[in-house]
Each structure stands twice: as C-alpha cells, then as structure tokens.
Design goal:
335 residues, alpha+beta, Jelly Rolls, Rossmann fold, 8 helices, 23% helix, 28% strand, globular
Length: 335
Amino acid sequence: MTTELRPDVRPDAWRGAAGWEHRGGAQRAWRILPELVGRAFSPELLAKAREAAGVRLDVVTDADSVRIEGDLTIELDRDHRIDVLVDGELHERVDLAHGPLGLTVALPGGEHRVQVWLPQVGDLWIRSVQVAGAVSAAPVAAARWTTYGSSITQCSTAAGPSETWPAVVARALDWDLTCLGFGGQCHLDPVAARTIAAIPADIVSLCLGINVQGGATMSTRTFGPQVAGLIDQVREAHPEAPIAVMTPIVSPPRESTPNVTGVTLEWMREAIAEVVAGTADDRLHLVDGPSIIGFDDVDLLPDELHPDAVGYRLMGERLSAVLGPLLAAEPVSTV
C-alpha cells in the first residue's frame, strides 16, 4: 500500500511549521503565522520565514521507502540537504539541486520511526510525500520547544538539517522543536513575537542581539526596552514555561567596536543581562553566549561570526546541558 503524507493530507505527520501555504496542489512551510505575512513589512524576513529550518515529517511506519516530490529554489552559496533519520539516527543525507525534486530513499525492513528533515535553507514547495507502507503517529515528545534567533539559530552551514544546534538539542532531549531562526532577521519584529506567543510551548528560548548590532537597527536607547517588551509578551502567552534568554556568542570584530549607533556586543550582553535581572520572574533565565561559543572556540567561526558544522554541533551539545535542566522542578542557574 502507498500512503500520501503531504501536509494538507496528513498535517499530524508534520512538525516545526507555524503554518502552510497552499498553491496548485503544493504546500510550502511558513515559520511565522501565515495570517501575519501582510503585517511583516519586511521582504527579507518573509524570505527567511518561508525556509523550512526545523520542519520535518515524523511518523512510525513499516514502509520500505519514502518518496518526496517538489520544487526547490536554492541559495547559490549554501548547501541544501534533506536528512532521513531512522529511529533517531541519520539513515541518509541527500544533496539537493535547484529545480524539480524527485527523491526516493529506501528504508530498512520492519517498523521504525522515520523523520525527514527538510533543508534549513531554500524555498521548497512540496507536491507529494509517499511511503510504501502503513503509517501511525510518532511518539509524543517530552516537551514542546520554540526557539527564536538569527542565522546562528537557522544554521545554514550546519552539516545537515538534523545537525543544526536546535535540532541537536531537540534530538538529545526529545523535544518537539519549532525553530524561528531567521538569517539576518532577528530584530524583535512584532510578527515574530506574535508567532512565538501563538505556538504552544513548554519552554521558549530567545537568542537575541547579533542582528541588531550588525544591522544597527536599534540604539542604546531602544534595545533594552524592546528586549523587555518581547520577554513580557512571551511570558503573557506562556505563563508557566521557562524562558531562556541567550546573549550573543563571541564575534571578535564586534566585541568592542561600536556600530553606527554606538552598540558593541559587550554592551549588548550587559543590556540583556540587565533586562533579565530586572524582571521579577523566577522562570526567566539568562544564558551567557560566550559560555556556549567563546574566545577559545574562534577556530570554529570561519567568518568570525557564524559557526561551522563542528561549531553548530558543539553549540547543540552545550545548550542541551544548559536548557535541559530548565524543565526540572528546581531549575539550575544558567550563568
């Protein structure tokens, strides 16, 4: 038997999308709420929000193969890959090219949990996803997790979509990931805040600052209040969830050199820490970015800003150790 798993046919089989756009029998994932697209007023943010970082098929099946058909528009300077995992382990990684996509991956015999992680970069329209066998729901994850950030959270240079740092954390902790990492576009946009608020979450992490500093989109006058406002909106929507606020990882050229608004990364970390410390919330936690990727790790930053594939895996390992305890009855300090 053949089972169609396209998102409009089996929405329960898909995880990580804020919504889906439908066009001519094909579907494209969105990582902001589709109904808010007209309120973004940023073509750059929308371009990143329709890339499928963290979006995946997740089912239990006895199928002997999975076939994916669609159309992919690529970014020329990035690798585009689909990862197929079987029982939590990488089974096959497939490089993709621009244009029509027709891919069949053979699966091992017997019943297994199968995940298909879509490329974290590129604009993918899905026309069909079929498995040659019966399908049932994947196990319920231990927790629902939304993470927000920049290109360092979208992780375009990770080895594959299942090895971005959010994917590494989610797989290690058995968390249901929604990744709102938008390359170059983490500017505390209202549509991002509203999307975070709308998605059910047991834990939320916010990786803030690097795009604001790099793009000089806020000043020493405006940044702190905007961080406070985002935290307040997330807390109002998720009153019981731990919220982790992570300062920027190390980027040597930006540490003490001010941008045109006078903002350095060193100042930005202090500003974020002040907001967190000044918020009366025992489930709000500060994560020091340089403790995740610091000066001892600069060899993992080829452009002195973005980690390489090894760096993203290291981020995932370190953040698993930091974020995991936050869901315990007595959360530990993260600084």
